[in-house]
Amino acid sequence: MVGAIGEVPVGCISVVRYGESFAFLGLYMLHPEFRGRGYGKQLWNKGMTLAGNRVVGLDGVVAQQDYYRRHGFETAYRTLRYAGIAKVPDLGDQAAQVVLVTNGKLEGLVHYDAGIFPGLRHSFIRAWCGAPERRTTFIVGGGSRVRGYGTIRRCFHGYKIGPLFANKPDVARALLARLLAEAEGAPVYLDVPVDNAQGIKLAEDCGLSPVFETARMYRGKAPEIPLDRVFGVTTLELG
């Protein structure tokens, strides 16, 4: 939602409701000229009203984390954004099994994602991974035997990778190799939970460096997420 004075937008906030028990807050921004006047608080209150009684997640920058704590959010883990011109690793033993996602593979991918992400996001995954003209998604396995998947998308400067979910580091490595090849030498960005030591190592092995830090924070009971399978967060704005 966007806050405006007349026809002049002053700020925005996004709250995505994934089912009846989980929501994710992002894109909370206010133009500097309109800060300190209560407009941000109005946006915040509207967003939290939309979330209702759901557990709410967000990725907070360091400067805003105290603000979120005052509103009932607690830190679950830290995330580092890695960036740079990547060295494409060897695909390894999984090379032949890394394939493009097609409509026939979306059902298995949706079920796999539900075992990692804390909310049901069937419609989102079908839109995010089923639009090859906007994003490219690779998968390892299929049906009930999916072992990982990853998506790369063009941004204003280079490419962002996310999600990058995999059961094992070697699967993540093979997926990342395919994804990085899509960037064709342009800068790439990958957000890795600090608790996933193998994910951090993989990013650094590819020549990427940490440039930015956030904290995953929740209002309510933090969901149990298998962070050892999260080698790249989907987005810091949508969860």
TrEMBL record:
Query: A single Gene Ontology molecular function, please?
Result: acyltransferase activity, transferring groups other than amino-acyl groups
Name of the protein this chain belongs to: Acetyltransferase protein
Quick one: signal sequence residues? none
UniProt entry keywords in alphabetical sequence: Transferase
Annotated membrane-spanning segments are none
The organism's taxonomy opens as:
Bacteria, Pseudomonadati, Pseudomonadota, Alphaproteobacteria, Hyphomicrobiales
| InterPro entries associated with the record | Acyl/Acetyltrans_Enzymes, Acyl_CoA_acyltransferase, GNAT_dom, YitH/HolE_GNAT
* Organism name: Rhizobium freirei PRF 81
Q: Which Gene3D superfamilies match?
A: 3.40.630.30, 3.40.630.90
Positions of the N-acetyltransferase domain: 1-92
